Amino acid sequence: MNKNELNPDRSPLAAFGARLRSRREARGWTQEDLASRTEYSSVHISAVENGRKPPTLRFSRSIDRAFGTEATADAFEHEYREIKHGALLEGFPEYVKYEGRAVEIRLYEVGVIPGLLQTPEYAATLEADAVRREAITPEQAEERVELVSRRQATLARTPSPLIIAVLDESCLRRPMGDPTIMEAQFHRLLKFAERPNTVLQVAPFSMGARRPFSLPVTVLTMPDRSIMSYAESAQRGHLERDIASVVPILTAYHQLQAEALSPAASVALIEQLRKGSP
Length: 278
Known about the structure:
6-stranded mixed beta sheet; alpha/beta; about 280 residues
């Protein structure tokens, strides 16, 4: 029997199905083998893998029991909830999987503190405003905040990835919630800067036209030293794996670092803002 080629970039359902097939084949299981470990038929599993049938909460939990991924960062239940509630941009769940395995993470953010560095209170305040604007539901907001916590487990794994974060000055100047939330967020940034596997820099407003990026961008280096970049539009996220497209972005990132404040000067600026100095 010919095996259908799965394109995880096609849709969230396709990404779920491709991941299910990949996890199953990694165990050396056939669809019948997996069916015997769940309450679903091999025909049903095939339909989910090929994107013909959407997963349900019950199905996702059954799959997690079979793979032993219940209550873990890799749980299929998490991915189901992302699909069900549309809490995340299309393309972002795929990116998060690579982020969790990357050995180097280079990120540039504009306007808001990036998720990997957010406190729970900062994240909740950000999402609460999206709920107020009716851009998302309260359930979606809760899932987004939960995902921030799961992604931050990246910082604690061994060996630790190298994380280089360049924040546009607007990330620090934009107030989020009451002063205690920003105080705690500045404290989190300073603790992040102290870690042996991190570099924190601020791209000041004074860079002007010398800033190579206008929008947020992330570059990942994987264990095999391959690189990929991730960027978002208002509609979806895009993960770029083509080396010819990623290398210019990495080059521009190095230029960004060269023009940004030094780590020491960046920490000094955050300390000033934390103390309420202009």
